Amino acid sequence: MSDAMPVTRALFDEVMVPNYNPAAIIPVRGEGSRVWDQDNREYIDFAGGIAVSCLGHCHPAMVNALTEQANKLWHLSNVLTNEPALRLAKKLTDATFAERVYYANSGAEANEAALKLARRYALDTYGEQKQEIIAFHKGFHGRTFFTVTVGGQAAYSDGFGPKPGGVQHVEFNNLESLAAVMSDKTCAVMIEPLQGEGGVVPGTKEFLKGVRELCDKHNAVLIFDEVQSGFGRTGTLYAYEQTGITPDILTTAKALGGGFPIGAMLTTAEIAAHLKPGTHGSTYGGNPLGCAVAEAVMAVVNTKEVLDGVKEREQWFRAALEKINEKYDVFAEIRGQGLLLGAALNDKYKGKAREFLVAGAEAGVMVLVAGMDVIRFTPSLVIPETDIAQGMARFEEAVAKVVAANS
Ligand SMILES: *Cc1c(COP(=O)(O)O)cnc(C)c1O
């Protein structure tokens, strides 16, 4: 295959496993919150690579960190440690409740580590009858077989043979439904403080506080999956900071690397002690390139200026969406926190979220969906006000088109 061969969307269907159905365009270049496709057509990016590109595309802080590290040292494996990994772990533990860090390459891997650690901690501390894991309907925790089984959509975990056992699901934001199944056999509760894939649904403060109390009552480990809600997305470094409670284990990925694949599990020294040498691992986890980039991302994101800026941008997004809604009456509700926002469609447009996404792309703005009824916005945390205004003008065009097509 020569470099001159044309690369088209059609090639995807010839050479790729068909588990995705990507859009017709192929982006080739990005800068800040703008992306250009093969025909040099420009898009404003309100999707951020699914809540990943927290500093937009090719932010100089990330490019510099990656280039500098690329000329020093790429990879060692876990037989050796490295400076960026240790520096980043120090910064993550200084900035959070956590005292220990385990590195992974993705959100699913960070969650896999969290679940295995919770099981091992319970086994060592309380015995083998304590192994029930409780999670929530519509929760999402990744696609490994354990994490997808803990996720709350059976459709994603069905059809692959016997599932890992000891996993139960209850209703999100419903404390009674959790209390009804919790017992001293409960090993862990895994929860997104703000459900992302499940429709951008915030856990209420009272609910999350109740979850913490039930975990304490039954000596169960509370795992916060902050893969999507974390790393500045909600206006604090992690969303748990705004809940008044603290988890025992927290997982982080997506925005952590700003586009470089890296994930991490954070926990206390007491719980971490149960992942003894040989119990778990990863060849690439904590590699110098990823950790150097994450360090650079954190230096920008974990500042008052950027975190306050997230809350300010949330207001700009909400105002623009409310204004569109006044004119076209398509949303039942704008919800979420910081720059993880969902526009839930009203009854007339229920099930049609994808139509808005497709019309958006045609109008030159990239948005996401969260299920069939919610349009999701997860832009760069530093997206300029002018890009928001221009992107929203394009999104309004898209909304007008969908409204016209449905009237
Ligand atoms: C995206 C996501 C994951 C999975 O992360 P991957 O990097 O795709 O493995 C897990 N949990 C939540 C809450 C997510 O949003």
From TrEMBL:
Coiled coil: none annotated. The modification N6-(pyridoxal phosphate)lysine is found at residue 254. Pathway: Amino-acid biosynthesis; L-arginine biosynthesis; N(2)-acetyl-L-ornithine from L-glutamate: step 4/4. InterPro entries: Ac/SucOrn_transaminase_bac, AcOrn/SuccOrn_fam, Aminotrans_3, Aminotrans_3_PPA_site, Class-III_PLP-dep_AT, PyrdxlP-dep_Trfase, PyrdxlP-dep_Trfase_major, PyrdxlP-dep_Trfase_small. GO terms for cellular component: cytoplasm. Binds 1 pyridoxal phosphate per subunit. It holds the Pfam family Aminotran_3. Its main location: cytoplasm. Its EC number is 2.6.1.11. GO terms for biological process: L-arginine biosynthetic process. N(2)-acetyl-L-ornithine binds at residues 143, 282. It comes from the Bacteria. Pyridoxal 5'-phosphate binds at residues 107-108, 140, 225-228, 283. May also have succinyldiaminopimelate aminotransferase activity, thus carrying out the corresponding step in lysine biosynthesis. Belongs to the class-III pyridoxal-phosphate-dependent aminotransferase family. ArgD subfamily. Homodimer. This is Acetylornithine aminotransferase. It comes from Aliidiomarina iranensis.
